[in-house]
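Residues and backbone
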Amino acid sequence: MGIFSVKARIWNVKEPARSATVDLLVDTGSTYTVIPSRVLEDLDIKPIRSVRLRLADGRVIERPLGEVGIEVEGFTASATPVIFGDEGIYLLGSVTMEQLGLAPDPIEKRLKPTEALLMKAMVKD
């Protein structure tokens, strides 16, 4: 997939005035969004649990996971999981993209709105 970045505003879900603007690399290979720990700590984001993550080279690491609010290109999620990452690592993961209703377009190198799926059994004709 072509590599591209998007600008995002993230915030502390308990204190929305505490926010930051970041550039995130769109990464369909990453389950979760990753932001450097320093940035999350500056926003007073607290870890809620630890998660095990498999890296591309096969290693498994454990990192803290918290929640942030996020807005990308006018699409908002009031809370999305975020990994406390290493310095310089800014990734937009697939869980957040799905919450925002966005999917990467590798040709145009941008995010595009998607349609959500709903089982027919849940809709009356």
Remarks:
- The two ends are 39 Å apart (CA to CA).
- The longest helix spans residues 94-100.
- Strands lie at 5-12, 15-26, 33-36, 49-54, 60-72, 75-85, 91-92, 102-105, 110-113.
